[in-house]
Amino acid sequence: MNKKANYRNTKNRAASESIAMKVGQNHATGKLIIKLLEASGYIVEKFKPLRKGFFKGEAGWTDHGRKHVAKESGLNHSMNDDVRDAIFTVLHFK
């Protein structure tokens, strides 16, 4: 549900094609996961990713966002942004 990106501005054509292929694979994987969950009887709610702002900046989660996820989840160990995104999603829909 992200806005379409244009990777054709990269100077290296092979790099541009590689990025486009990976984006397409991720998109297809997401669609397959949704189909599998729906076929198994789950209700799937699609939503847009968290926008840049108070919790997320250009380079990832802000310090405030990290502290919020740690406080709300009770998990204080180090985690990458993908794990933090997943935890935030679960907290949002709880």
Structural description of this entry:
It contains three helices and two strands. The protein has helices at residues 13-39, 63-73, 81-92; strands at 56-57, 60-61. It has 94 residues and is mainly alpha-helical. The longest helix is centred in the first third of the chain and has 27 residues, at 13-39. The radius of gyration is 16 Å and the shape is flat. Helices cover 53% and strands 4% of the residues. It has two domains: 1-46, no CATH class; 49-94, no CATH class.
Strand arrangement, largest sheet? Answer: 1-2
Reported for the largest beta sheet, the result is: 2 strands, antiparallel
Report the count of strand segments: 2
Shape: flat
Report low-confidence residues grouped into runs of 5 or more.
Answer: none
Q: Label the structural class.
A: mainly alpha
Q: What order do the helices and strands follow? A: HEEHH
Fraction of residues in H or I helices? 40-55%
Classify the beta-strand content into a percent band: under 5%
Number of helices: 3
From the alpha carbons, calculate the radius of gyration and give it in angstroms.
16 Å
Mean pLDDT: 85
How far the N terminus sits from the C terminus, by CA atoms, comes to: 21 Å
Question: How many domain units?
Answer: 2
Overview in brief:
With 94 residues, the protein is mostly helical. It has helices spanning 13-39, 63-73, 81-92; strands spanning 56-57, 60-61.
